[in-house]
């Protein structure tokens, strides 16, 4: 169980994929992990699994786009040493000419405003910890664009800029700001959500790629960055599968 001396890590979007894997790994690394996501049943089951494994976790249902709920969540925490802003995702892959503005708005709301809400709400506790860490899960999409990606690329650029700017603004305070930018990661939900449940379109994203990254691969880089000595700030970590040289250059055995 957690004690006053246990560092607390909050993970958003912890119900599946990279968030769930990060929660497991940070708990195994000795953190008390607070799992947040909209799907309460999932995070409660994951918290139970982590506790049954002898580690420490709690679950708190949260929609990061709901500022009042985020503020109430922040007020409920005894402490916060690590925040992993993982909640986010892609919706649609239409070209600019036909993309749905509603999808763009939703992606901006979750990936940027959601990250802003939780970061703002927890920054006082992270600073008070004397050794805080903010992780922003951006994406290689936050660093260069690709056809059909504009809405997601724009949102992930927003997340990247939030991390970069925050690092400038709080230098001198005891809080690190780490950006992790994954490339192709095969999770159970990312592509399926993007293509609105179309399993064929989702499968094509990974077609012929022998080893896309897994959620565990990315969680490993997050956990590594978070567990470096306090004075070491991994500003930006870009991680791709070996088969992916850029957003548009992927080796496929087809
Ligand atoms: C996911 C990477 O290539 O689907 O963040 O935009 S990509």
UniProtKB/TrEMBL annotation:
**GO MF term set:** oxidoreductase activity, acting on the CH-OH group of donors, NAD or NADP as acceptor
Instruction: Report domain Ketoreductase positions.
Output: 7-188
- InterPro entries linked: KR_dom (IPR057326), NAD(P)-bd_dom_sf (IPR036291), Sc_DH/Rdtase_CS (IPR020904), SDR_fam (IPR002347)
Superkingdom per UniProt: Bacteria
> What SMART domains does UniProt report for this protein, alphabetically?
PKS_KR
Q: Which UniProt keywords apply?
A: Oxidoreductase
- Coiled-coil positions: none
> Which family would the database say this protein is a member of?
Belongs to the short-chain dehydrogenases/reductases (SDR) family.
What protein name is recorded for this chain? Answer: Oxidoreductase
Q: Which organism is it from?
A: Streptomyces subrutilus
């Amino acid at each position: 169980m957690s004690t006053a001396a246990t560092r607390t890590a909050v993970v958003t979007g912890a119900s599946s994929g990279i968030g769930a894997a990060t929660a497991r790994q940070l708990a195994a690394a000795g953190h008390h992990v607070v799992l947040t996501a909209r799907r309460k049943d999932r995070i409660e089951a994951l918290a139970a699994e982590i506790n049954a494994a002898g580690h420490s976790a709690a679950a708190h249902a949260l929609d990061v786009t709901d500022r009042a709920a985020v503020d109430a969540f922040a007020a409920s925490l005894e402490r916060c040493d690590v925040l992993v802003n993982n909640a986010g995702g892609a919706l649609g892959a239409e070209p600019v000419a036909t993309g749905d503005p509603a999808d763009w708005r939703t992606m901006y709301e979750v990936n940027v405003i959601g990250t802003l809400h939780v970061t703002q709400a927890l920054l006082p506790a992270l600073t008070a910890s004397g050794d805080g860490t903010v992780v922003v899960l951006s994406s290689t999409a936050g660093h260069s664009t690709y056809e059909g990606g504009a809405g997601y690329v724009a949102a992930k650029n927003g997340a990247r800029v939030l991390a970069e700017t925050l690092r400038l603004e709080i230098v001198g305070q005891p809080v690190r700001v780490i950006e992790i930018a994954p490339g192709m990661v095969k999770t159970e939900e990312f592509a399926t959500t993007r293509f609105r449940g179309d399993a064929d379109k989702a499968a094509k994203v990974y077609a012929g790629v022998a080893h896309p990254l897994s959620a565990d691969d990315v969680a490993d880089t997050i956990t590594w960055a978070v567990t470096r000595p306090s004075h070491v700030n991994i500003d930006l970590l870009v991680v791709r599968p070996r088969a992916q040289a850029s957003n548009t250059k992927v080796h496929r055995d087809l």
